[in-house]
Specification:
The complex is a heterodimer of chains A (479) and B (260). By secondary structure, chain A is mostly helical. Chain A has 18 helices and two strands. The two termini of chain A are 14 Å apart. The chains are: A mainly alpha (479), B mainly alpha (260).
Chain lengths: 479, 260
Amino acid sequence: MQTTAVSSADEARYDDEVVKLFATATVVWAVVGMLAGVWIALEIAYWPANLGLQWTTFGRLRPLHTNAVIFAFGGNICFTGIYYSMQRLLKVRMFSDALSRIHFWGWQLIIVGAAITLPLGLTQSKEYAELIWPIDVLITLIWVVFAINFFGTVYNRKVKHLYVAIWFYMSFVITIAVLHIVNSLAIPATLLRSYPIYAGLTDALVQWWYGHNAVGFFLTTPFLGLMYYFLPRISGRPVFSYRLSIIHFWALVFLYIWAGPHHLLYSSLPEWAQTLGMTFSIMLIAPSWGGMLNGLLTLRGAWDRVRTDPVLKFLVVAVSFYGMSTFEGPMMSIRAVNSLSHYTNWTIGHVHSGALGWNGMITFGILYWLVPKLWNKPLAYPGWATTHFWLATIGIVLYTVSMWAAGLTEGLQWRAFDAAGQLKYPNFVDIVHQLQPFYLLRLLGGLLFFTGAVMFAVNFVKTVSGPAAAPAPAPAAAR
Amino acid sequence: MSTPNETGYTSAHRTLEGKSALFAVMVTVAILIGGIVEIIPLFSTTYGPEALAGVTPYTALEVAGRDIYVREGCYTCHSQMVRPMRAEVLRYGEWTRAGEYAYDHPFLLGSRRLGPDLQRVGGKYPDAWHFEHMRDPRATSPGSVMPPYTWLHRQAYDPADIQASLRALKKVGVPYTDEQIAGAPADMQAQAAGISERLKAAGIDADPGKEIVAMIAYLQRLGKDGRAAIAAGATAPAPTPAAPAVQAATAPAPEQGVTP
């Protein structure tokens, strides 16, 4: 593929300093966001873990966890990968160094704002859109900065044809802007409080149109773009099918946006809307698996290296989890399945198989490859990468399996009847107590994943503060 | 990635890849269609969020309580949506109609039930139960895993602050009159005094200005109008195809409901 031929003269033209900044921020927020996750998992298993403080209850930390892992950890790795790859794919420096810096620092400011306001209980309550309206305005401004920088770079490009990764990045830039603005429309009451312009189920539908497509266009399309750049680059194998990438790209961006109402099945949202949500969710299997297959089949001829190369291990598991969670999601969107799974831990297991398995693993895979390249320093503890991989993989398995078990248990017991046709478990708390072993197992799984992330963070700090690599000839041909 | 034998759509797509502005426009069109088809009809009178007859806007004190409910993230553990299924109707009460949410800005359906649904909690327990439950959840619900919310009993809400909320809510469509907004602080204090009186009757000395009183006001309102409207035979939008009318008939009144 065209991208592997990068001359060192080209490399010198690119702005890699901003890539380093975003990569560093990714590592920092990974630790923060996952620590928050471990903490709230502990709070579910052991309620006094909020230490009696109002700022640390589950209700206030849960949004902090989701925002930190999605927008801080996930966002920063997307920007890391996009700024690194688009300069190389388009053979041009980013449009504006100043805009790159404003984007970076603005985004971190937003995250710090989230980390301060959410524990204080300053929230709009819409999931993954909790941040108060002044921060929403800042997000809009920073996103416009990013969009100008992105499209300016596309406009200045030295390569005529846009590579598939760029298509996915483009859908990310455009769709997140649309989703964020429409879902955040609200009338401020004070500087810290506002009320959405939509009422009741309309508000709910707009929110889940946003919420599901935050998954679709924040945690899927930019990451698929990263996959299309880094997987061929790292493995040295061309993308399996150009035709497949065309079909699954357009199908994915068109179909995803319809799937939101599957979050509102069995609500009193009009039935046609629920059915559309369910139908399009099921159809989404095709383009999702198109992406997975195009990723996995790209590795044909490189499978022997998966055994020894931790970077490829991370990437293979990531793409596999992408396939698994995009099978599970459509299945859970089927009304009958949803009647059991909705409101249960099954949903929590599902999102974590996507977030830890897909987004987390691909992020670490990319960073293990990219960090030594960016800083031109060898990994301080190369052996730790494999240990990290196994901790993370076992952690995800424990997490998802325990949450499946918990979800099925509570879902079935909520609706179990005795012989007289009355509720078999009329006391809600009795069901909650049955979940305790699963909550502990989940906590262990989360801890393993978190431990791996901390190992990575230590490795990262030692690597970038360590001595430079011995001067090697032609670094671009390293792999 | 470039293949020599490009034909048909791949060749056309290759051309498109050279035209970045057109590509961006096509992506935009592709992602807008689904949202337009699903969301726009909800602004019509047919599918819109019209209030069920008898469902009225929250009072000033209830709005303050709802703001606290949002602040504490109660919705991260408690849903407000009874699904039209026999088990849910038995456990929680009447299933939820769309028109009950008409004045909900924001919606608080929740996405997870770490604790029970609260859609029909209004009127299910006395005020004193909620007061004690927030102070020590295990005192009223043995085995509960909810943390205490003791700061609600210490912190005061600001009656001077409520008018800004009501004005904003009026702008987004909640039909508050100017008189209601002008009288909101007094109205708030009157409702709080009533709750404080009921608590006193139960042997609890509660300052009517504390957040717990606003919280109780909101919780006691939850699902109440809707339940009365449904009992009075108000028409509702068509439900999901689970024959809920039959199920509703088998449901006990929420007051006879089970322990939380």
